[in-house]
Amino acid sequence: MSAPVFVVHALDHARAAVAACAERGLPATLVSAPGAAAYLGAQVFREMIAEAGRAHPHVSVTAVLDCGEDVGLALQALRHGLKAIRLAAAPATLAKVADIAAQMGARLENESDAAALDLLGADDPLAVCRAWLAHYK
User: How buried is 39 (Cβ within 10 angstroms: 0-12 exposed, 13-18 middle, 19+ buried)?
Assistant: First the structure.
């Protein structure tokens, strides 16, 4: 089964997503908000995801930082150890960044979040995650 995808905007969102996945024995993919690398930063995002996973070390958590259109932020995210990033750029630029990412054991991702649960505005993120996972396939 593929990992459910959650768009997280804060630490409580990340914690709720990981906890709900732990209850169901599922892995979790935590994606930042679009362009979050510009205001949150790679190091803060990496630490936020690590902190969320500490309570449930048996859950496989994949973190994906959206770098918007900023190649510099994408490269910085790779230097900070993130293993999955998103970048909106010209195809030639994407190919170069994907190559650099691969050399660093990371990947450039450009999947859609259409099937993701966006936790923006969730008053009780854990309850929202649990309810969504009850119907997750």
Answer: exposed
